[in-house]
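Appendix B. One record, verbatim.
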Amino acid sequence: MRLHALVGLALLTPSLVLAQDSESSPPKEKAALKEVQEKKSEGAEEPSTNLKPVIVSSERGGDRSAFEVPQSVFVLGRERIVSGPMPYSVPDLLRQSPSVHAQATASGQGSPFIRGLTSRRNILMIDGIRINNSVFRAGPNQYTATIDPYLLERAEVISGSRSLLYGSDALGGVIKLESRRPGAPTNTILQTVDSKDPPKNWMRGEFFSRYASADQSTTNRVAFRAQAGSVGLIGGVTYQDFNDYKAGEGLDTLQNTEYSQRSADLKLVIKPDEKSAIIAAFQRTDQRNVPRTHSTLFSESYRGTTIPGDLRRDLDQSRQLTYFQYELYDKGFLDRARFSLSWQRQYENEDRIRTRNRTRRQGFTVDTIGTFLELTSTIVPDMDIVLRYGADYYHDFVDTFRSDTNAAGVTSQRSRGGFADDAQFDLFGLYAMVEAPIGDYVTLNGGLRYEYAHVNADDVDPDPTDNNFLRKIDRSYDGLITSFGITVHAHEYVNLIASISQGFRAPNLDDTTSFNDVQSNALDTPAPELDPETTISVELGVKFEHPKYGNFQFFYYRTYLDEFIARVPTGRVVNGLTEFRRDNFSDGSIEGVEGGGEIFLIQEPLISVYGGFAWTYGRGDTLINGRKEEEPLSRINPAQGRIGLRWRSKDRRFFLEGEAFYVRRQNRLAPNDIGDTQRIPTGGTPGYNIYSVRGGARVAPGIQVTLAVENLFNTDYRVHGSGSNGPGLNVIAGVRGEF
């Protein structure tokens, strides 16, 4: 009822919407944004010393500066990736964002939490294409780790309910990853071209190597960029090898944590003219023998966590994406247009050996055909009223498998795996958003989206021989999604933001057809009668950006949960496991604050203070002893903060930084958390402090070296909800070059 009242109130109040695009920005902002867009079109890298408000954030239908986006947006550029923390994975990279809490079930896996939500309640995208599919599970998943961080130009974290633009699943936020483009060989950190008019035909090679002492791991990437007239090409291969790693003080090397990963990517960009581009790209990542250590005998007890009995539990995973995109700029009534057609395949195979040599092989293949059309038009030029509109459609083909071998060595094949076999899932959305400046100081926006989803699954029953017969599922879900916002341009360098937005998520195949072991000693069974879950998020924020003094943002939010899908115990025990079934059981709320930025203390050489913080509190309905009671929501991330001091030389040849990362104890536990004794200690996960230093230097033309020492005091810690402890003292060395 609270949600419907809020929607009604929103419809009676002035629209709270997305801010100006580049054409409606003040002259100073337009000039800065134009400069960035020109550099982006040339493929120039983001400079590590950046005193201008030139960070660009991608919006559906156009680009704008991060300062002008009326949401909490944190951007991690390429220089931060290859010359800063040098992450081993995308989840590791996203930890640098103040709004992200990155849980890790095991090495090679990681699930970012945004505003207390993770997995299928956030959207993961690359180059505008959804990576989410219909088997994304409710708990933390590992699919963010199947993206090579070193093919990225930047990563953006957009917090809050964003279903209006991005559709189903965007409840906690959106993670947008952008891969690199060929571009011109100018304005890079390592080399420059003296001529103001770069050559039309050229080729350049690149390499990157990373070594980390905690696990004696190596990462090696070789790539190239080339241009021949209007045709550009970029590509590369990455190989990563991770060994058993050493945790902090008090723990020895953690066994069964090694794995390897290989990635390859290729992108072709053809520019027929200055106002259009044709893009074709291929990406593939393969992980081999990634262990889920926490469920095996190799697990280490942390503050009393239990050690289960699996002898082995390894995952093979792959993600492959091929897409074609066409872009237009300033043609006719279109300010910008982008059309995309993609095919994506995600594969997973789990090999599990239990006690008494009982084995299980289980997995799936999901093929996804996707397309979208994004359009931006200035519909009233004299008033700078902009319309952003478009449509998107994704179709999943799901194939699952499972085989079990008992202690006597007899193997049985099941007709389906963890989800329904030969199932299909459709997702379609149609949206429009209007942005209208009111005078010089206020911008309003409002929009509407229609979202439709369809589940079709024939092989739902996990065991046709028992007395519980489950029929096939053929259900459709739909909903209307609205969002409203207002941006007050209080000063040339200050924006005040308020918004109210809806979130929508249709039940997927994991919700409706799952038959899987989960957490500790629990079993999920199919629940075909689910309805969509929705949210309403109210936000207040302030953004500051100044070319001389730096930038920061601060947001308060409260998200109301309506008919949230939760695991509810059925009272039955199946094969020694407590049975759970999904239900639209829970209402509740999540509130919190988040913020961060960088303040310049001295200009030349540049000395700055950077950091961020996030605090989240969530409660929802839970069934306890047959009664509905309000309890803490599961896996809510603890309060965390980061602060650092950074020095960069005037010529950008050298940098040095030191930082402290603080995480508070999390003892507000849901009943499911208390029962998850493999991951969460009794009484909650202890807090911790991690201190690190990093530095880098350009030692020769085209060569840069970077050295980092992380967890200086060898602290023993565990990220809340994770299956393994974090690495101890870790020396990371990197070298990158161009030739």
